[in-house]
């Protein structure tokens, strides 16, 4: 992604705003040089008036000079002449004393005179003291004012100081294209129209159509929103103004609004072009909630005004991206502003394969079994896929190979999901057994329920994430719909680990904490959001706040109901747990076989596990 930035800056003057200060300082230095000439470098000894008189009376003093309140005098001590200074006091007898005193001078007289301080002419004094400082201040004021005005635009808040960083560079020559964005075909389709508009606005304006002014890219983090925005600019070959929403929010009220004004002014000059506001929720948050934030609101208002104000036919397209669309101000979303909404979803199986091949182009690799890798990465975003490919390349280098293999990719999937292998963590034999039975418990419950996904891999090698082992289930396809049975079976699978521990060791360990968390979340969602409990039928009991960011939810029911929901969730988990226990008790023999195989091998593949299972099924 080689992009060059061309030096198209704002309308700020070419002069550096700080030049005024520099000139001021320079002039003050010069003045100081004029007014206080260099003092002689010879060592002057400070002494008191009494010693001066003593030295005069004892005939040591050679010459005396009185200058602006100070008396300078020299004495001769052998061959050396020493220079002294002392303060002048009102001593009427001084002249007489000096005239009468002895001196080492040849004529035995002290040479003395009074130096009249050289007064500057009154006009020069006036200029130096009044006009010049005034001039300096005027220059500084003008420079600062100008730079401020450039930052604020006309009518800005003059009190705002500080670094606005008003320079927004337009990037041209962007090399990112739609080919770099894998999958996301719907998004590309919508954006292709915008690209065409930027190429050839006349085609649209002739018929009287005006294209959407803005499009909002919405989706979870890492799905390629920023990437596709760049790709639009690369395809259309127009300048690209990219700015992040948070860059608008400044310390001082008014700065953000000024920046918005500035941005649109520049964009108008460079049309056709693209303005891209990343993470727009930083300024676009709904205005009515909670405490007001003056700066953010002003910035948002300015953005709304600018979006209304500019001519849609000119060829300025505004793209924005966010992963919190529900928090955006409604005014932003109304027609005429961001009226197109482009959904960027997590990639499905085909999408993941496509993303893999885009990123594999950047590394040297052998024949890769895309299907295996894509299946193992269910739920991963494009950014995670990119990371997985890179991790695989790093692993290949670590292993001293020149190309990436499927094994590298599989290992790096695990590294990204569960953390790196913890080589030095040594489990005791009992721990190892517990972990092995726990993981086999999950796998067996999953396999025995016809609807559960088969196992991809089971391992008891500790990971840096803290997992002591895990069972990787592989989604056979991406399911858009999950039935109640699917979800319930999944809960049963999650309880399978703990169930195995109970059956074999008659005790429980801390190893199930993650399972507990997941099972509870799933059961709760079934009751509150999916309408899968008999008791609450289709009543919605919860709303999801951040669908794309973890999806935290809040209850929308009374406290009574909330307590009852807990009971319902508990009932569901208990039933699933019982189911898991009964499955495992029925198949104790195969559980022992698989567990001892796992303890021996530490990692077994899904195929190996299924082999054991099939052999067992044939026997019985
Ligand atoms: P977002 O802005 O949605 O959070 P980005 O656009 O910044 O995500 O994506 C981060 C990185 O992930 C990209 O630079 C790219 O390497 C990779 N990526 C994400 N989605 C895709 C995709 N659909 N195709 C190819 N690479 C992708
Ligand atoms: Mg982004
Ligand atoms: Zn578990």
- Tell the overall outline: elongated
Count of individual beta strands:
17
Using the CA coordinates, give the radius of gyration. Answer: 41 Å
**Separation of the first and last Cα atoms:** 60 Å
Briefly note the structural class of the backbone.
Answer: alpha/beta
Can you count the helices?
22
Query: Low-confidence spans: pLDDT under 50, at least 5 residues?
Result: 1-15, 36-41, 152-166
The profile of the biggest β sheet is:
7 strands, mixed
- Kindly report the average pLDDT value: 81
Oligomeric state of this protein: single chain
Determine the strand fraction and express it as a percent band.
5-15%
Hetero ligands: adenosine-5'-diphosphate, magnesium ion, zinc ion
Helix content: 40-55%
Physical arrangement of strands within the biggest beta sheet: 1-7-9-10-11-8-12
